[in-house]
């Protein structure tokens, strides 16, 4: 399995509002993807930072998710927001 953990870090209220606007649909679509085991993006006590936890069946399904995300409305609208992620394989 492939696990991603980290943070989505906004630099302004405008960026945070973009996340709040587009995240619900992004979460819905991701959870429907083949190979998605879990997908959580939760706001932290800092309103500009979200905690991100993803788990996918294997590298191929994770790669498909990444490709879909980059081409999505979410990917386009939030592309300038910093992502601080670690990605690793788990058993």
From TrEMBL:
Q: Any keyword Signal?
A: no
A Pfam short name: ABM
Q: Tell me the InterPro entries matching this sequence.
A: ABM_dom (IPR007138), Dimeric_a/b-barrel (IPR011008)
* UniProt KW ATP-binding keyword: no
Superkingdom of the organism of origin: Bacteria
Q: Where is the ABM domain?
A: 16-69
Q: Which GO terms describe its molecular function?
A: monooxygenase activity
Which keywords fit this entry according to its UniProt record?
Monooxygenase, Oxidoreductase
Q: Provide the protein name.
A: Antibiotic biosynthesis monooxygenase
